User: What shape does this take?
Amino acid sequence: METATVVKSSFAACSWPSYLGARSGSSSSRGHNYVPLSSKSWVSSAWNKQYTSISLFKLGQRRMGFGSRKCTLVKASSSDPMEPAAPIAPLQLESPVGQFLSQILTSHPHLVPAAVEQQLEQLQTDRDAEKEKEEPSASGTDIVLYRRIAEVKANERRQAVEEILYALVVQKFMEANVSLLPAITPSSSNPSGQVDTWPSQEEKLERLHSSEAYEMIQNHLALILGNRLGDSTSVAQISKLRVGQVYAASVMYGYFLKRVDQRFQLEKTMKILPEGLDKGEISVQQVSEEEVRPDVTAGEGSFTSVQSHPEVSSWNGGVSPGSFGSGIKASRLRTYVMSFDGETLQRYATIRSKEAVTIIEKHTEALFGRPEIVITPEGTVDSSKDELIKISFGGLKRLVLEAVTFGSFLWDVESYVDSRYHFVMN
Assistant: This one.
């Protein structure tokens, strides 16, 4: 059917091999250098998508749920005591700290920041005590055991930090009165098997971003949905893997966008924006010309045009490149990002901590399940076994808006936690 054809072409560019990813490998560095990552993680399969997306500006085995069996994070009980309460978030937190915060989120969500402060103080105390311990002078098994115990404790602290980040993100959604989407499965209440039975909440999500950032988000949506951006009712069958990749990439995009918008808003307040940005927006034609012009200073691999955006293949489904101006609008923030040099852009496009990357991966996996990515001998992704889901274009828009907001919140809470318990290495 027509809609299915459009969407399949819209996500066709996701079918490249993933050789960057998140949690495998023993690199001790972070930030820019802690890849490579697992080729079967959601973050790995979206990583190249996100970097290609961001380059446009320059050239223009986990359990799912939230809580343990005895501590599942659910919404307050409904008026019907027999009706099971719906989960607040799709991911389960497994550490003692995570389960404690799950209980606070369920009963007294406004107390989460205070509970987090207490947990971070304890983590800092534990880490300081660990540093003060002297390594045994004896050789052999004593040292091996000592180092193994220290490694286990460090891993426990890292998991606690990850789950603190997630709990804070969930709490920010709750403060905004926005429900996080449940795991993506066919709804039993919908005989057609359509997965999206949730409300759009577009207005609530829009209010969580600055006007300049939301313009960029609209451009991101236009590149993903193409000429279906205004079509909220048509339903299509789409690969669940492709949708998950777009979700993970949009989380990373939201993280990047909040990072640059924070700098932009500060410079705007201090009236030190680059020359020209305070004189109004440049024309769409200018932006288009900038984005197809190679950057001769950025080195090999820096030539990118608008068609290289991984989601712009939607144009093959009926939106021609000639309609670029109607979908991609010039904005001051977009122009501001285009003024960055290559090194600055790469730094802002990098998720700073391994903990944040792990949370993106776990949350996406809780929503879509563990991805089964099979690479063919030719180096492409074998899509023959992809699970197809029925989803409306309005549902896709809701998914992307949530993902971008999740990434924006993740930047905020990562900075907040790091200011009290330093774990970001760059």
